[in-house]
Amino acid sequence: MIKRLTLVLALLALVAAPFAEPFQKSGTADAASPHFSDIQPSQEAAVNRLVDEDVLAGYEDGTFRPDKNVSRAEAVTMIGRITGFSGYTSPDFSDVSDSDYFVQMVAGAVHDEITRGYEDNTFRPHRDVTRGEMATFLTRAFTFTNRDGEANFWDIYPGKLHATGTEVITTAGIANGYPDGSFRPDQSITRYEMVLFLDRVLHPEERVSNDGSPEVEGMTGETRVVTASSGLNVRPGPNTDGSPIDRIASGTEVDVLETVNGGWALILHNGEFAYVSNSYLRSPGGSLAGKTIVVDPGHGGHDPGASAYGVVEKNVVLNTGNYLAPMLEAQGAHVIQTRSTDRFISLSGRTNMANNAGADAFISIHANAAGSSAAHGTETYWSSNYSAAESRELAEKINSELVRELNTRDRGAKQANFHVTRESRMPSVLVELGFVTNYSEAQQLNSASTQRRAAEAITRGTVDFFN
Ligand SMILES: [Zn+2]
């Protein structure tokens, strides 16, 4: 009997190797030295231990692929390599055949009652295994002792699938969930998470306390700035239940570890995990949240604007405006486009749109023309009629960003008496991206890449102005 089992396992090793990936056995290698090019230093010890113990292997290209998901067939194979299985019951799953490389491992898992497959008589070997399923598999494959009291995860509750398995492996120190207090039972398990679980199964000294520390190393926060003018409530959970535990002042920077439950940001507050509403946070690089900005591509319809060398101003500026609008929106602005298609709008129609909306900025986009084909460069106009100082500042910031981005001659920010800047009551500018009457600038202005980069430059200048 023992001989027979050994033979089966030897065959299994041969059969199973090509599926999972060829073994990168270290043999005499020092377990502390990294075997793989794509794992973090903090991941090396556990990964190398399990590879040295033949539980799983790396890939032929020298990678380990720690973030790759694990299939159900791979999961039972890894477990089988540890337990050896006590016998094999040929499965009659409709989606597992005798020629499948994993058939023996599935047979072992069925014999040892680690899995029964699905009610429709399938095993779904190629489906990703979830963290919850893995918890159940491990609970059936190994015997654990509770060393840590009880597990409390907000996404695990009585009756939830895999709740028992999750509780067992957590209190045994095999898993410890995520810092936001979740276990994420329905999330696919990664190869590195699998390594952590199995390493703790095999090596009791590696087991962890269920103290809410991160399951996966390297979770770092992203800095955000509080925008709520009266301060932002800090709450113990990702919901509005109960009373806030504190309030953070507007302008305070917080580190957001992650966003959960549709719009709650997990932060560390006085050393404790806490939540704030994500709606009142902006990126520190500056944002246009709460700002209404009018994007005004000049001309349109029967008015082509300037044209030369086959390049027509109304098209260049329309395309640039259509790139600009979503970029400003991505910074949180409410954007009004005077036109997003090739149609004519009167000058007063444009300024009325901006004034009626109570806009915070007005940006008119044009391309220049001159009698001499030698004239070239970028200039931006402002008017002293309304918001003079702010209009000038906005013009200077946008013009310098455009010159830098497009590498054009800096013709400066200038005062002028154009209708759209004169009659708009908010900070307003009129940019002349370049000259269609200059051959090389005309070619440049006609390219989608230049139009997109011009929009990026205008966005940067605008963000700079408001922040
Ligand atoms: Zn024009």
TrEMBL record:
Q: Which UniProt keywords apply?
A: Cell wall biogenesis/degradation, Hydrolase, Signal
Q: Which Pfam families match?
A: Amidase_3 (PF01520), SH3_3 (PF08239), SLH (PF00395)
Keyword Transmembrane helix found? no
InterPro entries noted in UniProt: MurNAc-LAA_cat, N-acetylmuramoyl_amidase_3, SH3-like_bac-type, SLH_dom
A GO molecular function annotation here is: N-acetylmuramoyl-L-alanine amidase activity
Indicate the secretion signal residues.
1-20
What GO CC annotations are associated with the protein? outer membrane-bounded periplasmic space
The answer to whether the entry has keyword Nucleotide-binding is: no
GO terms classed as biological process: cell wall organization; peptidoglycan catabolic process
Ranges for domain SH3b come to: 221-285
Name the Gene3D superfamilies for this protein.
SH3 Domains, Zn-dependent exopeptidases
Q: Where is the SLH domain?
A: 30-88, 89-152, 154-212
- Protein name (record): N-acetylmuramoyl-L-alanine amidase
